[in-house]
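Running this now, will post back.
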Amino acid sequence: MEFLRKRNILLIGILSIAAFVVMGYHPGIEDDSVYLSAVKSDLHPALYPYDSEFFRVQLQATMFDKWVAGFCQFTHISVTTTELLWQLASIVLILIGCWTITRTLFDEARAHWAGVALVGAMLTLPVAGTALYLADQHLHPRNLSTALILLAVSRVMVGKRLQAVPLLLLGFVLHPIMGALGISFAFFLTMALHEPVHVWLRSWRTAFARNTVAAAVPLGWVFEPPTRIWHKALDTRSYIFLSRWTWYEWLGAIAPIFLFWLLWRIALKKDETRLARFALGVFAYSVFQLAIAFVMLGSPALIRLAPLQPMRFLHLVYYFMVLIGGCLLGKYCLKQSAWRWAVFLVIINAGMFAAQQALYPSSPHLELPDTRTSNRWLQAFAWIRINTPVNAYFAMDPQYLAAPGEDYHSFRALAERSQLADAIKDTSVVMQVPELGPAWERQSSAQAGWNRFRAADFQRLKNQFGVDWVLVSFPQPGGLDCRWHNDSLSVCRIP
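Update: finished.
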């Protein structure tokens, strides 16, 4: 096997480490509030005795948390180390998948490695207006699912489609939306590779019509009237609504599709058949998924489908755009010039590294296990995790994730304690699980005006919900029994 050559293994290893260092590592941020909390709950059922539905219910469609928890139990490796190891593994697998794809499209080794190097550096590239990066800075099922899809695409490219099936199915089990998009792309790519273009286009038009009808007549639950609370949660995610996208976000959506159409035409003229057919597959997949997105998001009757976020089909398109762009740079610009390669690698890695430093300015760039931190919020979370009872029930500013210096770290995932619903991340759960809407609105509304809370307000929360601990600013309001503080925050009991 070509990959098993020492030189190839070494280069993938170096590029993977470089990618990890450039993108940074931040467990417990953003979506990890759901995934990491679920893994810890699976391992220690006594955790989160209150409001665990805000992370449990959403994960009923995936085996990701059960799989990670099972790995920890089988290997006796801690959760923090397991998350780090599999984050590294997902990066390695993504780059291997990219490398195997490039070898089917280009003959030159410099093209292969330039493509892989560019993907590694650009893992935190934003994907148009979808609120996605190519890869997350923490272990996310989307990272692993993407790696499996890329490996499956490489199998399709070499004509071993049956080998792609288990990879796609496993990707679907880990992340159903990402897996479904991967299956969709594999279908279009197969059609592009193995059928004459005119026959393929006819088949595509038929498939388009059939799937458009299917999208227009979904399951009955879609037609259930959405509640006011569900709409309120949905409105917090402006990226879901195409009408709210900015011009540059639309440019980021349309330009890659046009570029793959252009690449298809140019490659055909140059008799680069494999590259032309690959570009055609990406183009047709993009047009099809864009049409589906317009149907799903443009019809008021299908508003319940909005949380599926169909524009996230661009995630795969961006991977292929960056990969092919890097390959073309390597083939036509970098060639065998050492200084060009040096400038290329320094610019792409330094630029993305600086962007990530600016994105999380109050946190270590690599939040490795057992690393000391100067982040005041993470210090508070660590003290709470060690020094409060597992059944402690916390209240805090419902906007705490956006607080200066917090850097969107999840209290549930990192402090490992129950909390009242917040007004930022929990809204995404309500979009997926409307039944949680009333509880979310009741709890987040009860914490409104947090910065003006006094002893009577905290007592009201205790009487209404049973919370017995609070995380407040230092110096804290009077009437609280405070056990710890730094120069920004205090951890206190409600008497």
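Residues 76 and 82 are 10 Å apart (CA to CA). More later if anyone needs it.
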